[in-house]
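Minutes, project check-in

Agenda point 3 was the complex the collaborators sent over. CS summarized: two entities, 1034 residues total, and the question is how they sit relative to each other. Sequences were read into the notes so everyone works from the same version.
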Amino acid sequence: MTNAIIKTEKLCKTFSTGGIQQHVLKNLNIEIYEGDYTVIMGASGAGKSTLLYALSGMDKPTLGQIRFRNETIEKLSNDKLAVFRRKNCGFVFQQMFLLDNMSILDNVLAAGLLVSKDRKKIVERAKDLLLQVGLSEKIWRKFPSQLSGGEAQRAAIVRALINEPKVVFADEPTGSLNSAAGTAALDVLTRVNESGQSVIMVTHDLRSARRGNRILYMRDGVINGTCELGKYKSGDAERHSKLKAFLEEMGW
Amino acid sequence: MKMLAFANIRKSKNNTVTLLIMFIVAGLLLNAGLLVLFNYSGNYSKMTEDLNSSDMYCAIPSSGYSSQIKEYLDGNDNITEYEMRNARWCLADIKFRDEIREEYFLFYDADEQITMSKWKTAGETLPVRDMELPAYIPITYKLSGGYELGDRFELKLPERSVNLTIAGFTQDSYFNVRSMMLMGIYLPHETYREVSGMLPEDSETQLVFANMKKPDSEILTHVREITKLNDALVTKQFKNSVMGIDLAMVDQGRTMMADIMSIMIVVFSLIVMTVCLIVVRFRIKNSIEEDMQKTGSLKSVGYTSNQIISSVVLQFSFIAFLGTITGILLSYLTIPFISGLFAEQSGVLWEQGFDAGIGLFTVVFFLLAVMIVSLIAAKRMKRISPITALRGGILTHNFRKNFIPLDKARGRLPLVLALKSTVQNAKQSIMICIILTAVAFSSTFAVVMFYNSVIDTSTFAKVPGSELSNAQMVLYPDRDNTDLVNKIGNMSEVKKTAFLDYVTMKSDRTIVSVGVMEDYEKKETNLVYEGRNPQHGNEIAIGGHFAEAVEKEIGDSIVMTYQDKKVEYLITGLTQGVNLNGMVAWLTTDGYKKTDPQFQHITLEIYLEEGIGAAGFIKNLEKEFEGQYRNLMDIDLLFEEGMSSYQSIVSQIGIIMMAAMAFIVILVLYFVINSSIIQRKRELGIQKAIGYTTFQLMNQITIGFMPSIITGVTIGSILGILSTNPLMSVGMRAAGTMKAEFIIEPGLIILFSGIIVLTSYVTSMAITYRIRKISAYTLVSE
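CS then shared the predicted structure for the full assembly.
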């Protein structure tokens, strides 16, 4: 059994809208293991994204504790959380959220230079990562609006990886991509995980979910079930059947 | 259309309020400035008209009065009418605010029937029956001196005190302000008789008020010649002085400052208005981008471009209208303050009713400007098709070049990102630069005025053209004063002495005040702005205004006349000087003696060594040389007192301008940064998500504005430094100051520029603090 990199105790998140309280996360006790590719699934409104952002320190829980390795993060100030995120977390969003006014390379460096003082080294790493995800030099100076969705998402993944985060958090990373682009993005995330980094991904997509080795299924703010799939292997029909059966059992 | 306009106003409440405040400030300043410019002097002119003020007056000591004067007045064709009156005068100490002042008073019989240069009471009066020595005193004492009806007004004479009771305050043309030397006190007949008995015997005087076909100062010159009392300044021994002045000079003296200041306020308001228009343009351009999809929806449901543009024009016109109207109304609340500011110098009680004409002009001017700017700025909406707008306006964000790439840039990340933002938002940066240029320009102007009127007043003192010695001794003309002058010159406290007398000459029909000096090298106040002072008997320096009037320049000859004796002089220099509206000239003693061989200097300017006080020195002179001179004056004190009212006006207006500028900087930055934060909310959210702290983002935004702020402040300050004197020269030209040479202290301007930059930085940091509320989570969840 590997060590838990993130551990929650009685994690709760409540939203208040127009005086009505909505309990989105309810007393969650979960563990995310180092080196795992954890996939969070569930119906819309189940609390998947809320859980993802709470685990990553992007949002604060209402109650409960979140331990990232040995550090308790839920009580950190916003600025301390920002510093925590830049060092430990990488984010991949459905909408990419690249900075429109910066070139692709600058988008990556805007994150990289935040942590590393060695400009030369980080520039080299950025370029290397961009090449690794299939983004050639000719598009490094382009703006996000000049890229296809797939290219933009791969650039966003490079930005997430530039600081060698302990965990990469991905929220529906293929949600706005076509099939080929989605596969390319998933391949990159898989390679990331294979290199030892933890990945936590929220998805609705079965094809994306298959990439994970551990599936958490959420319903109404609680983990309804867990499925251990083992390491991803391309074309592994047994994994696929197991996942399908799990999801059917969960009412997917 | 109306519905759309008001929906926009409701949506952007903060920006609307900021813009509204700016229009209020601009409207207030423009309306107040125009009210002062058009009505203050007009109010004064109407008063002189109502009081049938004479073209000139002179006061002759009774001891020097003779029938020759009446014969001269009766026989002068230029005099259309004149009136003679008996009065008393004296020099006394009085309390003015918290200080004791020495002032010259003229006592009138208030019950005497007069037709020329009348007086009137200002405001309420008290019944004089049973009142102890009731008196009507100039309104200046109420407006600036701290006196109220019924108060004691104590005059301390060398021998005794006269305690009057204030029954009312007065306004008149000649005797209401200290700068015109005499303050008129009007006493009921019985009181007049009683007070006359308390005053020295030689205090009796004859006043002559005259109207002329062509007003000039000839009467005063002739009366001085007849009486042989030729002192230009009032002396403590009244029997030696003929005092007089013409109405044009009084008009100028009493309203010049208000005119100059009103022009400054109007110019300042126009700068504020320009800032408002730039901000309106910026806001419209921004809202086009922010509301692109809304515009698309409106267009898709059938709204025409003109309807949408009209709603934008209506939105900003309404804000401008509301702000201007509020500003106009508030400007009337400032009238008592402005009136009080100029009161000591003008002696005018300014009661300003609502001026619909000026108000209408202000509103129409602002509305037209805003409508034109809004129309031009919103015109772009016409070119955007509904589908482009619905897609969020692909055409609106078009980054063509990646300025300052991070892989090549040097320096700290927040700084590099800030500079990137400055370059990418070039239009916004240019706008801030222009605004800060205007702000720094006005501030530099205010700082220069403040410095010259409060800190180093030497240049300001040159404006009237007076020589700035420390003491002045008037000698007896019929004596040999050589020994006395040598003794004074040899005193250890004395740095130097120089004779400087003023005489009156003519050039054709123009009366010219001519300074006569032996050696201009000794002159401390150099008024020559082109060429040089006269050095030889055939040379003359003339006032620039005078030179323009007679169409002469350096190198030309000019004929000057004194009592039918005509002499031609070579013009060697042009000078400043507001005496006789700039009709001034300068001759050497030898030069003047060509027209008046009998001339003898009697006015000795005494310059003291550094650190020697004129008051103590004069006391010593009075003891040591008693009876050997006719009069002795403390020029330091006279200067200080004369400057105090100017200082008060200029320093207060300077401070108000500086404060208003700081306020405008804060408002503009608030407006721009607020808009910028709204516009960049997504970008800031992303940055937060990837680990930027609030402080880093605050710094990034603030530093992004700094290049344009620093550039604007630098350009504005340099423009201010270069153009303050030329602008003041234009403003004061009519008064005879051809080339203003106000001291421009670079250290102070750099300091103030630094304060603007620092204020901008702090303001920007304070405004960007709201970034802490933009959470990364909000971004992703939105």
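Noted in discussion: The mean pLDDT of chain A is 91.
Follow-up: revisit at the next meeting once the mutant set is ready.
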